Amino acid sequence: MDSEQPIGHVRAWLRVVSADDGGPPAGVTDGHLPSWGVGQRLSGDGLLAGAPITIEDAERIAPGETGLVRIHPTSWDAWADVRPGERIPMLEGPRIVGIAEVVEVVRGAGSAGQLDDADFVREQYASTAPLETRIAVWHPGADGRTPQDVALAALAAVTPSRLLEVGSGTGAFAARCAHELRCHLTALDSSPDMVAATRSHGVEAVLGDVQDLPFDDGSFDAAVAAWMLYHVSDRDRALGELARVLRGSGRLIAITNGRRQLADLYDLVGGEKLDSSFSSENGGQQLERHFSRVERFDVEPIARFADRDAAAAYLASLGRERLAARLPELEEPLVARGQTTVFVADK
């Protein structure tokens, strides 16, 4: 994140719990820094994210009272899926001491940007070059596994005869699935270039939108959405579509990254990753709205950058040239840890 610009805020009505019910005896003052149980049920364990508040038109909200506040995330990673109307618990230690009902989500000019921005997605996938630059740096982790290995094992367990991949990209994984699973695979992508690249592997590929799939109900035994749901503006609609085209006991494999993905690289340049609205941290909850059973398998691949130019090319492939310019010369190759989750969702 560039420190000279704010990254935005979440505007909410905050009701402070009364002192008799365990709320803060002095209430809440402007600048207070609590933890927030983001994206979780009020009775459950929250994904805790510290973020200070400013109180609008007041300096304090007394116990038992409600006031309009602005919550200021230091990063959008944990807050990516927050929407107006959501109720977020404010915590002091293990105690819920307030409830914030979200009114508005405002992303500032200094935020890292969103992966589901339509212009960003269109530019990123106008050709295969940026994606191929990123794919080239990844290698199996210490356990010898890649996320693709884990995904293939989960697919093989249900022996699909008809498989759908949405967001097929270069088509390399689609081709591997078709070969190893010996199934009929249909790929779909919103980019003409990616459709052409997938067809070059001998895979049937169509141009289309995951939010409006051109297939009949129950057309497939399984589906794959690998590193693509964070590019979709209406994920609920997309997940509903994926559930629709799967047969009654169908399986969806969704692969995504977590907030510590490539932290070694981003820490080196003092930058924030592009904001992900479908991540290791919040993807499971979104899948549970459409699938009856969701499991997660965490994988830690590694990225190897031979020199400064390789790391700079990776950042530039994401439109992060300003961060690439901050890279120091590397005395030795940079190895950056990944944080990837393979979600396995069954209807």
Structure in words:
With 347 residues, this protein is an alpha+beta fold. The protein folds into two domains: 8-107, Beta Barrel (Elongation Factor Tu (Ef-tu), domain 3); 118-346, Rossmann fold (3-Layer(aba) Sandwich). The protein is built from ten helices and 19 strands. It has helices spanning 118-124, 129-135, 147-156, 172-181, 192-199, 235-245, 263-269, 283-288, 308-317, 321-324, and strands spanning 8-16, 28-29, 35-38, 47-50, 53-55, 60-61, 66-71, 87-92, 95-107, 138-139, 162-166, 184-189, 204-207, 220-226, 246-257, 293-299, 302-305, 334-337, 340-346. The strands form four sheets. A seven-stranded antiparallel β-sheet has the order 4-3-8-9-1-7-5, with no helix packed on it. Helix 2 (129-135) packs across helix 9 (308-317) and helix 3 runs parallel beside helix 4. The relative contact order is 0.13.
Radius of gyration: 22 Å
Determine the structural class based on helices, strands and strand pairing.
alpha+beta
Main pleated-sheet profile: 7 strands, antiparallel
Number of helices: 10
Number of beta-strand segments: 19
Q: Kindly report the name of the CATH homologous superfamily of the largest domain.
A: Vaccinia Virus protein VP39
What does the average pLDDT come to?
A: 89
Strand coverage percent: 25-35%
Order of helices and strands: EEEEEEEEEHHEHEHEHEEHEHHEEHHEE
Q: Assembly state here?
A: single chain
Sequence of strands across the biggest β-sheet: 4-3-8-9-1-7-5
Tell me the name of the CATH class of the largest domain: Alpha Beta
Overall outline: globular
- What is the count of structural domains? 2
Which spans have pLDDT < 50 for at least 5 consecutive residues?
A: 1-6, 40-46
Ends distance: 39 Å
